[in-house]
Amino acid sequence: MAPRKSERILNLTICLLATRRFLAKDQIRQVVEGYRGLSDAAFERTFERDKDELRAMGVPVETGSNSSYFDDELGYRIRRTDFELPPIELDADEAAVVALAAQSWRQSRMASSTRSAWAKLRAAGVETDSSRITSINPTVAAREGAFEVLWQAVLTRSQVRFRYRRGGTGTGEVRTLQPWGVTSNKGRWYVVGHDLDRGAPRMFKMSRIVGQPEVVAGPDAFEVPADVDVRALARSLEPAPATGTAVLAVRADRAPALRRRGRPSSRPLPPELAGAWSVWEVGYADEASLVGEVAACGADVVVLEPAGVRERLLRHLAGVAGAGAVEASTWLEESA
Amino acid sequence: MTSAQQVQRLLALVPYLLAHDGASLTETAATFGVTPRQLRADLSVLYMCGLPGLMPGDLIEIDMDAVEGEGTIHLSNADYLSRPLRFTPDEALGLVLGLRSLREVAGEDVLAVVDSALAKLERAAGSVHELAGRVSVSVQSGDDRIRDTVAAAVTAGQRLHLVYDAPTRTTRRQVDPGRVSIRDGVAYLEAWDLERRDWRTFRLDRIASVEPTGEPAEDHGELPASPEGWLEALVPVGEVTLELAPGAAWVAEYHPVLSVEQLDEEGAVRATLPLSDPGWLRALLLQLSDGVRAVVPPEAAEDAARAAAQTLALYRRLDLDGLGSAS
């Protein structure tokens, strides 16, 4: 039963904290309530499980022997200096920002970890007035199902395998990865690591991972190269540098995203557009995505140059105009 | 509630109660994120614990009468647990990432506080902080000058004049700033829009310029609770279903969807999206062109087709190629 188990594990912790010498298993069995009365086999099983649980929650259960001269039986203890949170003093403002950070997670496991971290700080004497900073409301979310397994795999250096959909569709292909780090960009999570199938570093978008990644080796299954900089790798997610420049006429105040990327141009406006329009030069890396972006602005943006982009845009728009006609006629027939 | 979670909490609860003699049951429960009932159950576990032997002098002492009577907690005889357990990697990195994302929207004054808190945490986290270089969060928060002006105005309660790039056009607004929030990696200013007489959110990275008007902000009451993410932030007026060719299937990944199903091996999908702005849908259909195979409701496709036809008509009028050959 859970309360009995909690009692037993807490009593074991206190016992191992209170001892300076390593305690042999038999001694532990005699003094810790909850082990007495168990059969030999049941005690072995229970003690091993309790010890694993303590280590999983970060309690440093040390194994060793009291004498290096005699062939002593192995024993256990918890060194206070390894167990205790080092002194930390936060002033009221620092405590307030840490409290905000502790409440920022919107992923259940991380939210519970940061709540527990905050409880530890409170227990270490950190005091705060939570109303101190109300001007900022940060949240960190992770909706991707693969997040938790990959996060743990990064922390424990465990090798993982998963199905990955390239281009966002299909059932995906199997990839095996030594995950070096995770990074979030515009709210999407990515995992970076050494891709064993490609023999090279790769970045994967977690939302394209099908189902749950499987841990196939570890912990401590690999070394992370010393010079890995996850933030620098994440920057490679930013748009490719512009290779072309388009000259666009933009209606006043319209198409802000295009203007924001561009700069005003001194090229002449077609006379028909004089007045409320202005000319902008906008760099682009990919012609197709520029055409899509300009098309989305409808009659608020005109491509002046290059002519090739303009022709492509006109074909693109003709596609929309044509498809609409077909759709409309279908709908009219159905409703008739 | 697993016993591992309970033991973890107990290891923090004991030092907390030693440091806060007479703490209230309800406040302590709130601090630890549990119900008062769960906290009572925790105390009854602690009541049975202590040094090996568990003779009366060995047990942790709790005044159970005060717990049941006044609702206050007096715990003693547990000096071996006077400090909490050190941070697990999850705990330390969770705080570090939370602070780092906060850092990306903080004004100068809060920035200094965040940095000193980060330094202290990293010292206390010991070897865990080596992992801190392997996790990162970035927030779209616009340029420093705009972020600082906004942050200062929120703190000082100054009315702002914004030049704001809404999706299809640049607008000019007067706002009373309420709060800066981060949702899904994007920073927003939540502010009272004086013209619209309501709370609005503005992406910091789309504020083209910001200046205090010189007037103080007025009190507009409580800010509405922030939605947790963009899906919740939308006020849908309807929904739209798109059949997307493989090359346009990214739409179902990029935009919030109500449902999505795969149509064939090549990767065509049918996605249903919440619709809050018909203008947004028209722009999307214009952008995707024949990447969209079918639209429900079909009026949306007609609307986009009309906009495309108008644009084509504009090009015909301008006769840009004719212009080129004449010069």
UniProtKB/TrEMBL annotation, chain A:
Residues 146-209 form the WYL domain. This is WYL domain-containing protein. Residues 244-320 form the WCX domain. Signal peptide: none annotated. Transmembrane segments: none annotated. Pfam families: WCX (PF25583), WYL (PF13280).
Automatic annotation (TrEMBL), chain B:
Residues 148-212 form the WYL domain. Residues 238-311 form the WCX domain. InterPro entries: CBASS_pafABC_assoc_protein, PafC-like, PafC_HTH, WCX_dom, WYL_dom. PROSITE patterns: WYL. Residues 5-123 form the PafC HTH domain. This is WYL domain-containing protein. It comes from Auraticoccus cholistanensis.
